[in-house]
Amino acid sequence: MPELPEPMTALLEALRRLPGVGRRSAERIAFHLLKGPKMDALELARAVERAAQLTPCPECFQLSEGGPCPICRDPARDAAVVCVVETPMDLLAIEKSGEFRGRYHVLGGRIAPLDGVGPEALTIGPLLRRVREQKVSEVILATNPDPDGDGTAMFLTKALEPTGAKVTRLARGISSGALMEQANRGVLSDALRARRAV
């Protein structure tokens, strides 16, 4: 293969770091970007640069442009009910269901001992403070229904016990081992409506 200019090599290497993008996919994406209008490629670069400036919301840890996110600022949302999710993508999946009108808390992952991820790596401390200080009445555990997600939910159930908040878990309309972000709106709506005490 002929030697590529350094900027092209750097672009290919950056694309290959994305999940699910191998060498061939990176090449297709890079050449597609470069054969199209230059403005499209520059617009994508600017969008990525702007998105990289996002920071966690100080309240729920969802991505925000600084300060509380729109959901945390919305007075119509029920602050007494908090849905705990692993990632911002899980939050978006639940929002798309249109079923939930409370607030969220993004853990930033899940407890995964085999991967070296313990409770201290997640936003569990801020969650416990928030539940105590804001008098949250219900915490919905919406971690993924797989071994690490279930283990995280069990840990949180025990940690939340002293707060007196009701702790519920999404119903198993979501099949075991599935990812929250891949569930369709109907399944998530059913799971939220049929949540149960843990």
Describe the structure.
By secondary structure, the protein is of the alpha/beta class. The chain has two domains: 46 residues, Helicase, Ruva Protein, domain 3 (Orthogonal Bundle); 143 residues, 3-Layer(aba) Sandwich (Dna Topoisomerase Vi A Subunit, Chain: A, domain 2), CATH 3.40.1360.10. 43% of the residues lie in helices and 14% in strands. Helix 1 packs across helix 2. The termini are far apart.
Q: Nutshell version of this structure?
A:
Helices cover 43% and strands 14% of the residues.
Topology of this protein?
Blueprint lengths: L5 H11 L6 H13 L2 H14 L3 E2 L6 E2 L5 H4 L4 E8 L2 H10 L4 E5 L17 H10 L4 E4 L5 H14 L5 E4 L15 H9 L2 E2 L1
Parallel strand pairs: 3-4, 3-5, 5-6
Antiparallel strand pairs: 1-2, 6-7
Helix pairs in contact: 1-2, 5-8
Helix/strand order: HHHEEHEHEHEHEHE
Unreliable segments (pLDDT under 50, ≥5 consecutive)?
A: none
State the helical fraction: 40-55%
β-strand amount? 5-15%
Please give the order of strands in the largest beta sheet: 4-3-5-6-7
Number of helices: 8
CA(first)-CA(last) distance: 58 Å
- Second CATH tier, the architecture of the largest domain: 3-Layer(aba) Sandwich
Shape: elongated
